[in-house]
Amino acid sequence: MKLAYYPGCVAQESGRELDMATRWVCQALGIELVSFPSFSCCGSGFVDEANEVLNVALNARNLAIAEKAGLDLLTICSTCQGMLTLANLRLTDPKIRARVDAALTPLGIQYRGTTQVKHLLRVLTEDVGIEKIRAKVVRPLAGLKVGAFYGCHLLRPSDEMRWQTGEEPHAFEDLLAAVGADPVYYRGRVMCCGFPIQFVKPETASRIAGRQIDDAKAHGADAMATPCPLCHISLDAYQNQASKAVGHELNMPVFHLPQVVGLALGATPEQLGLPRHLVPTGPALAKIGTRAHA
Question: pLDDT tier at 161 (50, 70, 90 boundaries)?
Answer without folding.
Answer: low
